[in-house]
Amino acid sequence: MSKTFNVSGACNPDRHFVVDLESRLREIRSMIDRGEYFVISRARQYGKTTLLRALAGYLKEDYQVVSLDFQNIESGEYMDGSVFVHALAREVNKKIRRMAGVPAGVEQDIANLAGNSSRCVRMAEIFSCFSEWCECSRQPVVLIVDEIDTAANNQVFLDFLAQLRAAYLGRDEIPAFRSVILAGVYDVRNIKRKTRSDEEHMENSPWNIAADFDVEMSFFAEDIEGMLRQYEDVYHTGMDIEKIAGLLYDYTSGYPYLVSRICKLIDERIAGTAAYPDKAGAWTEEGYLAAVKMLLEENNPLFDSLINKINQYPELKSVIWRQLFQGQPVAYAADDSAVRNARMFGLVKTENGTVRIANRIFETRLYNYFLTIPEVQGGELYKRASLDKNQFVKNGQLDMKRVLEKFVERFDKIYGDRGQKFYEEDGRRYFMLYLKPIINGVGNYYVEARTRNQERTDLIIDYLGTQFIIELKLWRGNAYNERGETQLIDYLEHYHLQKGYMLSFNFNQKKETGVKEIILGDKILIEAVV
Question: Quick check: 85 and 123 in contact, CB under 8 A?
Fold first, then answer.
């Protein structure tokens, strides 16, 4: 069976092209050797299950590892402590029947707990079995529990955590698991255990013993290169591995699902098309961009979750809006629950104390979402763009100068009497809104994060393999404009382009609107003012 790129469930190195996890497994192994209990809390489709399965294999020579998936315990089995103990024993029993070295008495006791579901049992009984196992086993015992989110809202689960915590604290006197690893999206260190029936009386989390888990699970460019080399060893496409890996990292920031999904699209959906008839043609920058466009247009559980979280937290939605369209920096505050949750769900990341969208793919998808909600698309400018779009493509090439000319004309007619506040808060959004129906279905765009701020944004457009760089900025006078020209020229050098575009939003009543072309050195700049 030939290997594939996998985006469904855990990856298996025998069947899938995978990133080498050796360095991460060594880091986690050192935590286990120290006897730490910890939580692996990462966003959905971030490779948690793949890592845990690899970890179980990595430890098997020196540890007895029992790996559980709480998805196998039905929701009704969390409603009663006795029922939960029977279900937990059932899942443990399924695992230890396939393990060597489990003490016979322990195996029988757990089997009895699993088999006699009519008997009322307490949580302490199964923990007594665990303690006996840890005492009699020739190897230290490690417990791994995946998909803890399934149980996080149940009091029975909190009682289970409390028992684990008690075992941890008393393990110098009573044998206990060497290490316990809980994995899921939610960080169970933040949940509370009720001590009274009313909601106001809560004590600290029963999992406040957990050590920090700082192992980086995002892929680095070097990780992606290693995975692509596995692919290249099979198919010999001649791809520039370093370049393609760099593109994958730049667009995804190493989000595991996004990396694998783009690779899968290139391999299975782009290669073999009329534009890219073979794999060699598909594994190019042009083929890569075609796969990104395909990804951004599809519906998948990750994107559905992304939009759901935005809509679930109105405060977060407002923050994202301001960051995307107004370039306002957002300071990270540990007590801001909306931003903290967005970080937990993988939507944002923090850099130098500020919040940023986690990666370029998410950012573009969010731009697309905000620009396609009915109240935005119902506006006059979007309608005009839809009517104008046929005049902007000549011989398959996008005429960006004509786009700017028409935008200036439409914008001044519809919004020309607005003031400074309007330009600062809405100008760039309206250009992106005008651009969207023009390139929709053929091209794509993204914002260069390094230049996004309240005064300047660089928009990069990919249209049928051709790139356009447009600097969107607020007019701050001629001197500021000249600095902008210099910055744009430097940016053109970086992208090996000869022509660039500037769009200035000028709130000066004596402004001169229109589009002009200037030559600076060997570069051509098309400058538009509205």
Answer: yes
Tell me how far apart the alpha carbons of residues 268 and 416 are, in angstroms, rounded to a whole number.
48
Q: Which amino acid is present at 317?
A: K
pLDDT digits (tens, 9 = 90+) for 163-216: 999 999 999 999 999 999 999 988 887 765 443 444 444 455 678 899 999 999
Q: Give the percent of the chain with pLDDT over 70.
A: 89
The predicted-structure confidence for 489-518, as pLDDT tens digits, reads as follows 888 888 889 999 999 888 776 678 899 998
Tokens of 5: 């790129």
Closest listed residue to residue 344, CA positions, set 206, 205, 185, 195: 185
SS3 217: coil
Domain with 342 in it: 301-363
Structural domain count of the chain: 4
* Rounded distance between C-alpha atoms, residue 70 and residue 80, angstroms: 15
**Least confident stretch, 240-254, 255-269, 361-375, 399-413:** 361-375
**DSSP one-letter string for 286-349:** HHHHHHHHHHHHS--HHHHHHHHHHHH-HHHHHHHHHHHHH---EE--TT-HHHHHHHHTTSEE
List C-alpha distances in Å: 483 to 91, 150, 384, 486, 502: 66, 54, 33, 5, 12
Contact 439, 445 (CB under 8 A): yes
- 138 shares its domain with 243: no
Query: What local confidence, expressed as pLDDT, does residue 425 receive?
Result: 58
Q: pLDDT-derived band of residue 150, with 50, 70 and 90 as boundaries? A: confident
| Beta carbons within 8 Å of 505's beta carbon, 6+ residues apart | 423, 424, 427, 428, 472, 473, 474, 475, 530
3-state secondary structure of 179: strand
| Structural domain contains residue 6 | no
Q: What would the DSSP string read from start to end of 417-451?
A: T--HHHHHHHHHHHHHHHHHHHHTTTEEEEE-GGG
pLDDT computed for residue 325 by the predictor: 76
Q: Which CATH number does the domain housing residue 80 bear?
A: 3.40.50.300
Residues 323, 330 contacting (CB under 8 angstroms): yes
pLDDT exceeds 90 at position 105? yes
376 assigned to some structural domain: no
> What's the count of helices (H) and strands (E) in the chain, helices before strands?
20, 17
For residue range 348-364, list pLDDT tens digits in order: 888 888 888 899 999 88
User: Looking at residues 59-63, what average pLDDT do you find?
Assistant: 96
> Are residue 121 and residue 178 in the same domain, yes or no?
yes
